[in-house]
């Protein structure tokens, strides 16, 4: 039995943002089955200092610093007729690391985490290839194109078109293509005609995300609405902008003392500007998001563009917080009615107002949400389908449309 080579577009440690959380938990799960060699990019110096945290789960680790300027990647994309998503991650040093591992070790499975890394697969892989697309990135860029104008719209439409062609080609070569939700998997099958497409959902660590756990708490000083996320990520930025400009004024009419906290690292100038609005707080990076979630009267996910499963929603539910989310942010989560969903300004404002006005009802909804997470979303349960896809059960993965 051979080893696993795990390729990741971002070092999956520390698990402090959506993609790294999924990557880390998959890596950890796989390491209990076989020896795993990790090759990944790093784009934050802090992550390089803490990469030793992956030692218990990996054999060889090769972390390559990703520093290609976006402009250079864009020019390269135009010259080579390739998606910017690929040229941004094209790197000779990382390719050499892949070649060395494949030459020196008996690798029987290559696990590719995120589509950008599929360009490092051998032309004709002798190994089993598991391609975790997570989300359908081409559909995300298509949505960007539809919400943009002029040159930006053209650039995003080009990226969507080229990326979908690449996704189709990769899926044809992979033994299994994974997505974070059945909705994403179904969309991918419809758009590409691909087979061997499976849904492997995200989980949540309900012992860590537990309102009764030990963590630094904050004084909310009154009703508090909380949004968490990486605040230089376009869907998050547009989501909080939409919320503050449209929903927030309605809420403050009924609850003038309520505050809205935007919690997450690297807030853009546009996000920082929201902090000038009455009652809005922009925290920037925090050491532990649990303190803010525990203090929240309501957690919101007002995303207008969202793919797959939102970890921010799972985390708030596990922390027993009442959640109000748009339909896009709630898609892919089997919440069983334990969160409120409203995509229009009126629906979002009404749901939030109701929960702020009735703390007892809010607490009951939060408790139901946590119970749902405990029953449905443990990482071991969500990742168990990988055993069959990796050939560890003695059965073929077959052509099932979902492995969830």
From TrEMBL:
Entry protein name: TIGR03087 family PEP-CTERM/XrtA system glycosyltransferase
The GO terms describing molecular function are: glycosyltransferase activity
> Is Nucleotidyltransferase one of the keywords?
no
Keywords assigned by UniProt? Transferase
The record ties this protein, via SUPFAM superfamilies, to: UDP-Glycosyltransferase/glycogen phosphorylase
Q: Source organism's superkingdom?
A: Bacteria
